[in-house]
Amino acid sequence: MYLALALLSTLTACAGSVAPGIQRLPDRVELNSVPFFKGNVYQSGPGVLASMLSQQGVIITPGLLDKPLHLPGGEAKLEQNMQAVARGYGFMVYPLDGELQDLLTQVSAGYPVMLRYTDGSAWWAEPRYAVLIGYNRNKQTVLLHSGMNRRQLMSFSSFTSAWKDAGSWAVLVQGPRQIPAQVDQPRWLNAANDLTQAGQAQAAGEATKALKAR
Questions:
Q1: Which of 62, 80, 150, 192 could potentially form a cystine with 46 if both were Cys, beta carbons 3.0 to 4.6 Å apart?
Q2: Residue 149, beta-bridge partner list
């Protein structure tokens, strides 16, 4: 009986360590349809962007993105350039908040998340781009397309630490009519304005109409 009570206490403690917003999500999600392009060059940026664009139906490979991303030479502006290229294809770039539950909420709705995290150890580390494609709430793990790994598992705590260390940057690359889960309306409209500034006024108009119609 004491053993059973101890086990129950341990399980309760584990469940309690997860944010309430995460506890309300499905137990396990894996977006198997998200394309994967392996490679470590340029912090995996071209491969990650190719995955996001391919998910939206664009026929693309990482190598075809080197020139529009200004690589080699444009590594310092890779984050900005990746977003600019996505907008150039007519997609919304929607930034997410800096908490794990915000990312997992989108994944549970079927939307992969493009992000940057610090990969390595105390002796060696570098920023790397990745696609969050799944999670297991009970095991407290996330699943990434990252570098050479199609299914990289990380614990919630390790991932959150590595993600925040790299600036907590995470975005969705959405079609204009793909409204994110729990959408922040001003943020969506700002993303539509960015799309207009990128010369995609028609797509931006569709995004605004989709928000009003929801």
A1: 62
A2: 146
